[in-house]
Amino acid sequence: MRVEYRFAMKQLLLLAVVLGISNAVIPGDHFEVLSSKRNVDLASHLVKISTTLEIKNSGAKATNEFFFTVEENIAENLSFISASGNKDSEDAFNVLKQKPEGNKESYKILLDKKLEPQATRMLYVYQVFRNLQQPFPKETKQSEPQLMWLSMNQHLYSPYKIISDSVSFKTPTSKIISYSKIDPYSVSNNVIEYGPYANVAPFTKKEISVHFENHSPFLTVTSLNRWIEVSHWGGNIAIEESIAIKHSGAKLLGSFSRFDYMYLRSQEGISSVKSYKTVLPAGAKDVYYRDEIGNISTSNLLQLMDAVELEIRPRYPLFGGWVTQYMLGYNLPSYQYLFTSGSDYKLKMRFVDHIFDDMSVDDATVKVILPEGASDIKLNVPYDVEREKDELHFTFLDFSGRPVVTMKKKNLVEEHIQDFELSYKFNPILLLREPLMLIVGLLVMFLSVILLVRLDFSISIDSNAETRMKVAGIIEQLLAIQGKRESLYAKFQDAITAYRKSKDNSALQAAKKSFENDSRDVKTSFDQILKSVKDENPEAAEKIVEIQRLENVYAGFMADAMKNATQIVAGNITAEAFKKAEESLETKKSETRGKVNKVVAQL
Question: What is the pTM of this model?
């Protein structure tokens, strides 16, 4: 029984190994490449290969799976690959990366339809490689030209047999130092053509190299940190990028000479980078460009019809091995990138944006900061990215924090400027949270101030405070009585003026009697106040006595006014004498009233 069990386990293990091998093997008998033409573009620091294939289904079954392989020594330099059935078509086929098999890295291209047995069709494959061109020599002087060395396979590295194979190299200039001379080949200006070669076996390797002059900007973004902050309040999306750039060309040999740079700048052979252009979205506004020192004012901004062009000019020219780092930020209107349906929102933005032409990025980190309260977050990306665990970001008036979606990717080029989609749910009622927090906060602050001012938190009784409060109450009573006294004066003055017109002596005497009685009542009230405040506040008592004295003087002036009125009515004085007496009396009354008011104000 135990022997049978062991035999069965061996059979299962053998079957698993066989199945694993069959899955790993790339089928080489399904297709045949009738023609392969590769165009290698070396105009920039990237290596762009456009491959035109005529393929034939040489198998017995219809299939839509075509395998495309890359040599192991350049597989990690491959940044982008796409395939289509039409050279000018934007509808690309699905390209699926397969698990590495030995020293090969393969991609499965899913054609738009199955190819019948013995049928043929055209296939176009586009590849972008980074860091394939190597400076040779690795160091050059400031005035020397920059030379690049490229070494790659002469033939298309394919799992299928190739009936006809050819390759051409296009260099930036016609200054080609050396190249592999393998027949058949031809050279015309800046183009080197090899082939065609007949009946190339699968996975054939034969190295060829090109040594040429290349002064294109060899800039590499070593680190890109991109923040995208979505705000529902102002309908705004804030973008900020922290960019570290290195000149990856031939390193500068010796010291830098500003004098030589100024006079050799207009000549050929200078590989430094003085400036480059960054293209921003058309809706970009409030653009800023700064580094650790501060704002860099040498940049230029140009508003175009469909974009915003920013000329980036570092503080110093970049030579080989030199680095620079800066911050670039701007705002975008959210209605162009944020779409909504009820409480469902979808953000559609670029994973990375244009930095410079033929850009090359080592490592990119993109963080999307969503509004506080966003939930049910779903991410859809156009290519594989590494998504880290979501985190929270706290800013002003945040209560529970804003969700942050973090994505990372290495080895990017300009073809990776594609849109990602981020869907989430957000209740618009949450927009009221921040203003309500402000209102409640201010209300609590004002109430706290009121309580702190009004309440007495001391343990002992402050007798002085009680005395001050008592005196303050008495003073308020005194002011009320003083106001009553002034109204009596005004009423009596009106009676005197009426007497001069009516000559009714009985009415005048009645008004006089009423004034004297009311004045006695006011004086009595003043005396009572004086008595109560004399011991508590002697200084206030002195002022009350002074008020009484001045009021007695003012009362005498009122008696003189009555006397003048009776004399003018009786005809004992002339009108001119009465007028002078009245003017003098008014002046004295005004001065006395001013003194009274001054003393009252000091209480």
Answer: 0.69
